[in-house]
Write a structure and sequence with these properties.
This protein is of the alpha/beta class. The protein has 27 helices and 41 strands. The strands form seven sheets. An eight-stranded mixed sheet has the order 1-2-3-4-5-6-8-7, with helices on both faces. A seven-stranded mixed sheet has the order 11-12-10-9-13-14-15, with helices on both faces. The longest helix is centred in the first third of the chain and has 23 residues.
Length: about 950
């Protein structure tokens, strides 16, 4: 909402303060600045506030606002006096205001840095987290306007407001003066305030998803009068799944006496339904959707699944229609899945919701599935159905104009029915947030991702995303840093999901292989080596092996402390007449289930070739084995958990009728890698038609288990760096270099400027002196001391020793003059070459360290060997900033050429500790100062003791917007 012309022309309406937020109960609201046009809304809002709340606000009975009050509360300069309102359906439900004050509490202007703040929340909306969200936003506004502290006077009986301030996480002081509580809040964000903000964000967004997945009632808008069509299909699927809530069919074309459709009540509008409708599935043409949304919003519907097409995938007009759809829905406090969605499924027995177009719905299980593509969603559902896998929830988000994969990561993080999260993503609307949420979720349950549209310029229509400059390989590396299992195809995603959902995590890479085919065993062995596993020689049971032989061999392998997982290979038996027999797959499956249930908890995968009924029988989550309870010395914590399952307090004996899939909320306490004793474990055993697929899934589980063990003890930024880092000095230097009116495109720093800035963080760059002619080169060498290096700095020759632009170990003046002449004769005039002289560094390994700010992914630190390994072969490792000591150690060890640093072919190992410290310093510099948008240190020569930075380039720019550090807000695509 823009202000009227009466608004002060000196301070334009700050539309960037407008934000949609998710409240504690999962509903949405809009926060925006109050303008002069809001007088009537303010009066109406105040009339609906109780006398008690008015008393708490004004410390006296205050039944109505005077004209002077209304004028004061609606006229702001957006600097010293600011008011924000929370709206639902265009009407105020809460307000907050600050007034800048001086040290005596009187009205003031800058440079005064304190403000008095006061809130008022409508009684009907108290308890929804409205005041907490408002505090985050008004604090961000205040910081933007140079205010560093809030002061508030609160009556002692106003416990709710005191709690809002107390729980915000800011540094604060409290005192009791003149019958009121005086609070002072330091508005500088703290680790605690950020943790509080993100905790509230998680609970609110998870709740908003839960309201969609577990409604008490569903209305299908657009259910046709005759069978067929999208709406009628969804209605049929709802009824077929046995939805436990109430179902309604809505179509404006129904006759007044329609009565029912498919046995459910039929209505011409949502407003005709006598009871509360929680979820509406919209399946009408795009031009009729606004009418349906308004009908839903005006009658309290909590969320929408919009199946209708004709939005951003149709071009500019469709994109605007999509934005208007989101604005309209959010104005009523509703969230949207879609548009152009395929639907949602919740297999919980308490809900049994299938509000989708899925022709085949997998059985209940432990896998959560999110996809941005309806076609891929159909394929995945069909594949999981055929392989007997079970789903907890399924979501096809379509254009994901509102709810995205990030929201479902928030939900799955604490969902007790989901052990593994599978996501097919074609775009990332907020990559920084995705990485943060994925890391947190992966610490308790696996997150498997397929990223479609991986190449530049191939973002699917309808998906508005930040433009990323980093290659897909970097994105993959950053996902793995966050614990995400990144796979290339949806087939691999299903393969990995099946193993992770029903098998414990492996304690290590040691693999036992057994089966009745020597050839299939060798193929499996080779696949293990290719994936970096440590397979034991395959055990050939011969083609005469019986199911009992398989059972005994698997039991022996599981009991072997030298193996962490088992791959069973099986081919059809050969009968006495020489013909292949498919055999009884169910008998073999039973034998394998019995052995797996009786042995220590280790993952088991089966590779089979045309054995009828085996895969289906293995997918059956049943057990007929009862074993004694382990001894008291065998604690449950000593048993590796199923991926995504929490540790239990102790396994109990199995019974023939007990379900074997198990459940349990994932917890960070789950130990992904300890050896376990014998106990009861019964569940689905994943089966694969090819050895490579089984081994690839197992390798992903091994890598994930290793990451999870390491994540249990996170790294840290060493405190010793603080003694050698001058953060304030660097900030002052950056301000000086950028100037009062910086170019938004930024500016590269000169060599001496870069050296000075890096020096503030303890990064020493070896000086270079210009050598425009031989005499200057000789003078520079005399100043630096022999031996020296002579090199060109022309952009097309920089770091290109292979072209002859670098001459090393020049020991005296004569050698230097001769090298200068050769250089200019070969490559061109000095003015073109821009030669410099630099003192020689100790011999070592040439490396390169870079840091860049990507608009989509954020700050990224990269490392590789200088020259061909990184430039030609792409052998570069990446980590998100800020980097911990563990990240730095992993970074230098994760490139393929890492052995060169550790004594390859008898060479002396280099000083990797000094290299790790350099990486940490660069990370700190970029993290502390977002104006530093690019750093390149090349080459960095790492010797056996210490290192030398020979070249450095730095680029500064006005800091880019950080969507992940401000107050909570929903994205606008």
């Amino acid at each position: 909402m823009q202000p009227s012309p009466e608004q002060s022309p000196h301070h334009a309406y700050p539309d960037h303060w407008e934000a949609d937020v998710v409240l504690r109960d999962g509903g949405t609201a809009r926060i925006r600045p109050i303008t002069t046009d809001d007088a009537e809304r303010l009066v109406s809002f105040y009339e609906q506030v109780s006398d008690e709340s008015k008393y708490y606000r004004f410390f006296a009975p205050y039944p109505r606002l005077s004209d002077r009050d209304v004028h004061r509360f609606t006229h702001h300069d957006y600097v010293d006096r600011v008011g924000l309102a929370v709206t639902v359906g265009g009407e105020f439900i809460a307000t907050v205001r600050y007034d800048r004050i001086d040290e005596r509490g009187r009205p003031a202007s800058a440079p005064a840095d304190e403000a008095e703040v006061a809130f008022l929340v409508q009684d009907a909306h108290q308890g929804r987290g409205v005041a907490s969200a408002l505090l985050e936003h008004i604090a961000a506004v205040a910081r933007e306007r140079g205010i560093r502290r809030f002061a508030a006077e609160v009556l002692p009986a106003n416990n709710k407001m005191i709690k809002v301030f107390r729980d915000a996480g800011y540094t604060q002081q409290r005192s009791f003066e003149d019958g009121s509580v005086h609070l002072t809040l330091d508005l500088e964000p703290t680790a605690e305030s950020l943790a509080v903000q993100r905790g509230r964000e998680q609970r609110a967004e998870a709740r908003s998803v839960q309201r969609l997945l577990a409604p008490g009632s569903v209305a299908v808008i657009g259910a046709g009068r005759t069978p067929g069509g999208v709406g009628r299909t969804v209605l049929r699927n709802l009824l077929g799944a046995g939805f436990t809530g109430r179902t309604y069919a809505v179509n404006h074309a129904f006759a007044a006496d329609q009565g029912t459709i498919d046995g459910v009540p039929a209505h011409r509008s949502v407003g005709e339904i006598d009871e509360q409708v929680d979820l509406a599935v919209v399946a009408v043409p795009a031009d009729r959707v606004p009418e349906a949304v308004a009908d839903c919003g005006e009658h309290g519907v909590q969320g929408l699944v919009v199946l209708s097409a004709g939005y951003a995938e149709w071009g500019a007009e469709g994109r605007e229609r999509q934005r208007e759809l989101v604005r309209q829905a959010r104005s009523y406090g509703m969230r949207i899945i879609g548009p152009n969605a395929f639907g949602i499924i919740n297999n919980s027995q308490a809900v049994r919701l299938n509000a989708s177009l899925a022709p085949e719905s997998p059985a209940p299980g432990r896998i959560g599935l999110f996809t941005q593509s309806g076609a891929i969603g159909i394929a995945l559902l069909s594949g999981l159905y055929r392989r007997g896998a079970g789903l907890s929830t399924f979501i096809s988000a379509g254009n994901r104009a509102d709810i995205s994969g990030n929201d479902f990561l928030q939900y799955w993080y604490e969902d007790p029915d989901t052990d593994v999260a599978l996501l097919y993503l074609e775009s990332l609307g907020n990559p920084r947030k995705f990485t943060r949420l994925a890391r947190r979720t992966a610490a308790v349950k696996p997150v498997v991702v397929v990223k479609g549209a991986r190449h530049s310029g191939s973002t699917p229509p309808g998906h508005a995303v930040p433009v990323s400059r980093i290659p897909d390989a970097t994105v993959s590396a950053l996902m793995r840093q966050a614990g995400v299992i990144r796979v290339d195809t949806v087939t691999e995603m299903v393969d990995a999901g099946l193993l992770l959902a029903d098998q414990p995590l492996p304690a290590g890479p040691r693999v036992a292989i057994l089966g009745n085919s020597e050839s299939l065993g060798l193929l499996t062995y080779d696949a293990c080596l290719a994936e970096g596993l440590r397979p034991r020689p395959p055990r050939d049971l011969t083609t005469a092996a019986t199911p009992q032989d398989f059972r005994d061999a698997l039991a022996e392998a599981l009991a072997d402390e030298g193996c962490d997982s088992v791959v069973v290979t099986a081919i059809p038996w050969v009968g006495e007449n020489g013909e292949a027999e498919s055999g009884d797959g169910e008998v073999l499956a039973t034998a394998l289930h019995e052995a797996a249930a009786a042995g220590p908890a280790k993952p088991v995968a089966v590779v089979h070739v045309e054995i009828g009924g085996l895969a289906e029988a293995l997918a059956a989550a049943t057990s007929t084995v009862a074993l004694p309870r382990p001894s008291a010395q065998s604690s449950a914590a000593a048993t590796p958990p199923r991926a995504g399952a929490a540790d239990t307090t102790g396994p109990g004996p199995a019974t023939p009728s007990a379900p074997a899939t198990g459940s349990g909320k994932a917890t960070a306490a789950a130990d992904a890698g300890t050896d376990g004793g014998p106990g009861v474990r019964a569940g689905r055993i994943p089966a694969y038609p090819a050895a490579e697929r089984a081994v690839r899934a197992l390798a992903e589980a091994v890598r994930y288990a290793q990451w999870r063990r390491q994540a249990a003890v996170p790294g840290k930024v060493p405190e010793f760096l603080d003694d050698t880092i001058d953060e304030p000095g660097a900030a002052d230097l950056i301000d000086t270099l950028l100037g009062p009116d910086p170019d938004p495109r930024g500016r590269p720093l000169a060599h001496d400027e870069a050296r000075e800035l890096l020096g503030r963080y303890g990064i020493t760059v070896r000086p270079t002196l210009p050598a425009p002619d031989p005499e200057a080169a000789v003078a520079a060498a005399a100043q630096l001391g022999y031996p020296v290096a002579l090199k060109t700095t022309a952009p097309h020759l920089r770091h290109r020793a292979d072209l002859g632009g670098v001459r090393l170990d020049l020991a005296n003046e004569g050698v230097l003059r001769r090298a200068y002449g050769e250089l200019t004769d070969l490559l061109g005039r000095p003015a073109e070459l821009q030669p410099v002289v630099q003192a020689m560094a100790p011999r070592g390994v040439d490396t390169v360290v870079r840091a860049t700010i990507d608009p989509a992914a954020g700050a990224v630190l990269s490392f590789g060997l200088a020259g061909a390994p990184s430039e030609l072969l792409g052998d570069t490792a990446h980590r998100l900033v800020p980097v911990t000591d563990r990240d730095a150690a992993e970074l230098i060890r994760s490139i393929r050429a890492a052995p060169v640093l550790f004594g390859w072919r008898g060479a002396a190992p280099v000083d990797t500790a000094a290299l790790e410290e350099l990486l940490l310093r660069v990370s700190r510099l970029v993290d502390d100062h977002p104006e530093v948008v690019s750093i390149a240190l090349e080459p960095v020569v790492v010797a056996t003791q210490g290192l030398t930075v020979l070249g450095a380039s730095v680029r500064l720019s006005p800091p880019p917007a950080r969507t992940d550090l401000g107050p909570r807000r929903l994205p606008n695509y």
